[in-house]
Amino acid sequence: MPMRNASIVLFAALAGFETPALVQSKEPLAVVATIELPNVEGRIDHLAVDREGQRLFVAALGNNTLEVVDVRQGRHLQSVKGFQEPQGVAFLPDTKQVAVANGQSGELQFLAGDDMHVVSRVKVGDDADNVRYDAAARRLYVGYANGIAAVSLPDGKPAGSAALAAHAESFQLDPSSAMMYVNVPGARQIAAIDRKAMKVVATWRTSGAESNYPMALDAAAKRLFIGCRRPAKILVVDTVSGKVTASADTIGDTDDVFYDARRKRLYVSGGEGAVDVLQDQPTGFARVARIPTAAGARTSLFVPEFNRLYVAVPHRGAQRAAVMVLEARD
């Protein structure tokens, strides 16, 4: 075994991870590092990246902290306290701030990116969750109890909201239009929102599966990828008609899915302990690899500029809290 791979195996073993043979170079994803998150307990939710500063922000919901990781050097930088169930997180490159949505307090906190002190707070609604940033419009969108709230920047003032039939889970902003697409698993539907008017213009039922939590968007091909838990499937939805055009089986307990446009792949992370790689083929998406991760590792973030998929691993028994780093390969 090459020395680089041997060191990864040793590091993973010390961190309490099982490492059944590291993925060979022919695999579409390869584990290249494991970065421990010291003293982090409980559930880990969403992640965000500072591309210029090469930092990863991890919402440690059960720990009530925001964990900051240096992905260039592969080390944990700091643990920031003062949150109440941090769920969604976004880095704002123009203001160099970090926005964190708190589920328990319903607040959106803005932190200075240099020393992580709280700059301001905005009340958005109960169970504040996923966060998305529209840099062109300078608006931040936050999913909460039964809706999506818009916050204008840099003043942080409310800029409207759209009511939904149930709690908003993952949602995506279409950069080529004013549309936003939102998973609403409690109503077994996807909501299409005009984000300028902050108005629901269509709702589409998920067909063939439910518990639709994660979502990815291929804006160029006008299709959504909807991760469902019951049963464990990916639904491909046409954003023009709202119809399900294809589906594929995938890992269970998924909470994040990403589309790798360059390689025409989907990466689906699931709490059952793996990342599924689905390849876009003439006959539809088909699983080409299942990469083992860890129990409960269901949230992740794919950063195309870094060619990396970061997977959040919670502390469970001998398994320590960490971020697993997987490299996408051609």
Describe the 3D structure:
This protein is mainly beta and 330 residues long. The chain has one helix and 28 strands. A four-stranded antiparallel sheet has the order 1-28-27-26. A four-stranded antiparallel sheet has the order 2-3-4-5, with no helix packed on it. A hairpin with a 5-residue loop joins strand 20 (232-238) and strand 21 (244-249). The longest helix has 12 residues, at 3-14. 49% of the residues are buried. Mean pLDDT is 93; it is low at 1-15 and 18-24.
Any key phrases for this structure?
globular; disordered N terminus; 4-stranded antiparallel beta sheet; 1 helix; mainly beta; 330 residues
Offer a concise description of the structure.
4% of the residues lie in helices and 53% in strands.
Strand content: over 45%
Average pLDDT figure: 93
Proportion of helical residues:
under 10%
Shape: globular
Structural class: mainly beta
> Segments where pLDDT lies below 50 for 5+ residues?
1-15, 18-24
Biggest sheet details: 4 strands, antiparallel
- CA radius of gyration is 19 Å
User: Can you count the beta strands?
Assistant: 28
The end-to-end span amounts to 21 Å
- State the helix count: 1
Strand order of the largest sheet: 1-28-27-26
Q: What is the string of SSEs from the N terminus onward?
A: HEEEEEEEEEEEEEEEEEEEEEEEEEEEE
